[in-house]
Amino acid sequence: MSKVTIKVNDNGSLRITGDVELVDAEGNKFETKPSFSLCRCGLSSKKPFCDGSHKGNFSSVVRAPKEEKE
After folding, report:
1. At 30, which helix (H) or strand (E)?
2. Which of 30, 37, 42, 59 could disulfide-link 22, Cβ–Cβ 3.0 to 4.6 Å?
């Protein structure tokens, strides 16, 4: 299986890249492409996918903690 990357975009979506299967709470599969974006703001009309509705309406900048160097 290929490596999957999930990128938390500033003020926007979660960008998923790689071979993943996206399912709903009942196990039904969503049709996806090799790279797609998931809504993080709750404003998309295409949930769970991002449609860009967040632009100007959502603010979130998340950073992972930096590893300490020895």
Report:
1. none
2. 30
Closest CA to 40 of 20, 70, 15, 3: 15
Q: 45: which 2 tokens?
A: 């009309």
* Pairing outcome for strands 14-17 and 35-38: antiparallel
List the one residue out of 4, 20, 16 whose CA is nearest residue 50: 16
Among the listed residues 44, 34, 22, the one whose alpha carbon sits nearest the alpha carbon of residue 13? 44
pLDDT in tens, 13-69: 999 999 999 999 999 999 999 999 999 999 999 999 999 999 999 999 999 999 887
Q: Write down the number of H helices and E strands in the chain.
A: 0, 3
